[in-house]
Amino acid sequence: MGMQLDDDQIEIIQEFVTESRDMIEQLEPAIIELGQNSDPETMNAIFRLFHSMKGSAGFLEFTHLTRVAHAAESLLDLVRNNEIELLPEHVTLFCAACDFAKDALDAVDASFSDDTMSAAADSISAQLHLAIDGPATSAADPQEDHPTTPVASEPEPVFPEMEITEEMRNSFVQESGELLQHAEQGLLAWGEHPEDADSIGDIFRHIHSFKGNCGFFGFAHLEKLSHQMENVLDRVKSGSRLAVDNPTEQLLVSLDLLQQGLNNIAEGKEDFIEDLDSHLEALKNLMTPLLGDLLAEEGVDKLAISSAVEIQKKPVGEILMQQGSATPEQIANALKRQQESSDEAKAKAKPVTRSKVPAKRQDIRVELGKLDNLINLIGEMVIAENMLIHNPDLKGLELENFGKAAQHMSKLVRELQEMAMSIRMIPVSGLFRRMIRLVHDISVKAGKKVDLQLIGEETEIDKTVIETITDPLVHLLRNSLDHGLEPPAERMANGKSEKGTVKLSARHEEGEVWVTIEDDGRGLNREKILEKAISKGLIEGDGSDLTEKQINNLIFAPGFSTAAQVTDISGRGVGMDVVKRNLEKIKGKIDITSKLGQGTRINLRIPLTLAIIDGMMVRVGTTTCIVPTLSILEAYRPEMEQITVTPDGDELARVREHFFPVVRLHQILNKRPDSEQLCNGILIVLEYQDSRFCLFVDEILGQQQTVIKGLSDFIGTVPGVSGCTILGDGGVSLILDVGTLVESFDSKKELADAAAISKGDE
Amino acid sequence: MAEDLSLNGPDNEDTQKDKYLTFHLAGENYGIDICYVIEIIGIQSITEVPDMPAFIRGVINLRGKVIPVMDVRARFKLPARDYDDRTCIIVINVDSTEVGLVVDEVSEVADIPESHVEPAPRTSKNSDNSYIQGMGKMNNRVIILLDVHKLLFSNEMQRLIQSDGDEE
């Protein structure tokens, strides 16, 4: 590829990189699946992906990438035709090829060239070729019970009774739809500028890919039609004259037919195209019959014609006459016939009219920044709407019509907000599928047999959330595989199946998304955890007073690891605290349940969206704050006799048979409340993970949906506060962080106590 | 009261050169390079944030954006003074961090060419000198030109946030 790239080329390359990355993401899980059960369907899917990558890379002249993809494709082809038995090494090799492709794509992304990958390409393709040549050199292999004769590769079609799943069908429809659209745009552009040879090349490529896809899925009608289109385009590409000056119209009609067929497929029907033959005929008529063929029909020696074509500088007819191979009559006849058929085609091509068939579904790629801006703007709008509807100027006025209009607007704004949120939501399948590779790699390294089950892949989560939980999920899976699951021998000894099961599931529950990792391994060992925690000084006493949950939560302490030895996969004790921190960042929670000897279940509870929470507005003195409704259990006005003060000065409030510590909000905010007396205010019972406490406020003002805004980076994190929101009157209100409230209160109290002692006053 | 000073135009560079927004603080004149200034707003209700050093007054809502507000008097450990109708918040943007500065009174945009700026005197007694970019001379007046980077991001600032936050 030349050094000078214009913007278009760069764009094409970037598109190629993105597409190929997507492809590899799909490839990896498929390859691993292949290692487990080599059904022809997966095999074909993988083959197709490598094939496409080879094609695109070849087109863009990324030779190293092409080389590797080609080698991988060849090896797969052999496997597919049962000429080589699929060995685990092959799977590893394919994975390595994927890794190489990823690196190469990174290189391409950075420098628009894969030249730096030359050495890596050499090594990987050498390995692949070795694997391809494998059976030939190891002819003595006892496994090979039937000698491979050239005829042994059965003449049956390459794709035997492939079952097309709904998912494959959908992605086929989508992909092909895009191809058709590109082709259509290309055609339209070419119609305007017929001299532009590049655009024809593009169209040809799109149609060619489309044909390939159709052929692969066995959609014969589509394939036939696109094949014919390809022929026409090929003619144009090689510079031959067509029967009509501008074949665009006819080609567009054919494109529409293809789209129609595609729509039929999308609806689960056959790829039936009405009057296929007549359309094929029409396309064929576009191509002027080759003069040589006509001459042959006139009885001219074929050899002479082909040699004449070789030196076709002058008109063919003239040359033939000079050679004496043809009489002027013959040539005149042929020319006349060529003219006739061209006229005929023109006549046929004229009355064509286009009827537009709309595509079923379209996707666009949008830069994430734009989307974030949109969502921010909508957030602003929610605030502005609040400011408008609850405008102090309107207080006390009876505005019936205004009320109606305001209600209508609120509804629209709410819908708009939901829509914007849903745009950001993407299914977790991409994330889950990445884990397949991870599990494969670890299980090979750790010598364990694992059956990974993915459930609820279609569950949608905010994109940012997915990014944040990727690392935690990797950590947790590693832990499950490395510490949780026992080696096969140990499992057998314990009466379990040799293969361990790890379930990764996602679902919507209680207004949250729950991502669960479940294994049937040895479970958490209470004694070991306690022992470790005591030795690390994390708990006081022997821990006998701790609940199961509290003990399980100990593993999230920094530097905590019960693994007897550190493996190269995990066990260094970093990780679980990172998991916890990452989840706290997105206001998520972790639940662990575990039964010794039966397995562990880790549940990540993640809020649906990061941008909006349901909040209860509370007041202390002149200040208002928001308490997240999710943490609120109940609220009540306490009676004097419900409050107990311990000798330490801690206040406890009785709620039925439980006592909860009281946290005074005015102390945290350093504000003057209406009254310091607990019975003059309201106690809100809050729950965070296992601890419950009562928050003392003056008054509850009401509930509202609030848009979360971060406090400025300049301020950093503030204990007890998770962010802020803008109220209807334009004021800013803090959103309380229930999790850190307790901690910040505790540390404050200690400081206050220390200060009281040193100063000698309260 | 709001006055948009952000200049957008091709001649942006030229018109902003050597221009400083000057303000009063406890009887002295201070100046900030105009290119950092986004706008000047009147004092408005500030939401306090717990666990902050005294000079971080809290946050305000600037047309949907939540920005922190720093009391420059408190920052320089000058005696506190009640806010009145002359008190202003100068909103500045430094390295894409927006911060509001509470000052006693905004005076004018002054043109102080480089030749009229002298380096800050080195007096070891007062560590706050490090926020001084230079001393500008204008007729008979002296204008203390502030280095906003240091004002906002100096290590001391971070330390103050830490320690003050704990004491509070």
Written account of the structure:
The complex is a heterodimer of chains A (762) and B (168). By secondary structure, chain A is of the alpha+beta class. Chain A has six domains: 7-136, HPT domain (Four Helix Bundle (Hemerythrin (Met), subunit A)); 164-287, Four Helix Bundle (Hemerythrin (Met), subunit A) (Up-down Bundle); 289-347; 368-425; 428-607, Histidine kinase-like ATPase, C-terminal domain (Heat Shock Protein 90); 612-759, OB fold (Dihydrolipoamide Acetyltransferase, E2P) (Beta Barrel), CATH 2.40.50.180. Chain A contains 24 helices and 18 strands. A six-stranded mixed beta sheet of chain A has the order 10-14-15-13-12-11. Chain A has a five-stranded mixed beta sheet with strand order 2-4-5-7-6. In chain A, strands 16-8-9-18-17 form a five-stranded mixed beta sheet. In chain A, helix 2 (40-59) runs antiparallel to helix 3 (63-80) and helix 3 runs parallel beside helix 5 (118-137). Chain A is elongated. With 168 residues, chain B is α+β, with helices and mostly antiparallel strands. Chain B has one domain (3-167): Beta Barrel (OB fold (Dihydrolipoamide Acetyltransferase, E2P)), CATH 2.40.50.180. In chain B, 17% of the residues lie in helices and 42% in strands. Chain B is built from four helices and twelve strands. Chain B has helices at residues 12-16, 72-75, 148-153, 155-167; strands spanning 3-4, 19-25, 28-33, 37-42, 56-62, 65-71, 88-94, 97-103, 105-111, 117-118, 132-138, 141-146. In chain B, the strands form two sheets. A six-stranded mixed beta sheet of chain B has the order 1-4-7-8-6-5. In chain B, strands 9-2-3-12-11-10 form a six-stranded mixed beta sheet. The longest helix of chain B is centred in the last third of the chain and has 13 residues, at 155-167. The N and C termini of chain B lie far apart (34 Å). Residues 6-11 and 163-168 of chain B have low confidence and may be disordered. The A-B interface holds A 379-380, 383-384, 623, 668-671, 709-716, 718-721, 724, 726, 730-734, 744, 751 and B 45, 47-52, 56, 58-61, 64, 66-68, 97-99, 152, 161, 166-168. Chain B: InterPro entries: CheW (IPR039315), CheW-like_dom_sf (IPR036061), CheW-lke_dom (IPR002545). Chain B: Keywords: Chemotaxis, Cytoplasm. Chain B: It is found in: Cytoplasm. Chain B: One of its GO terms (cellular component) is cytosol. Chain B: This is Chemotaxis protein CheW.
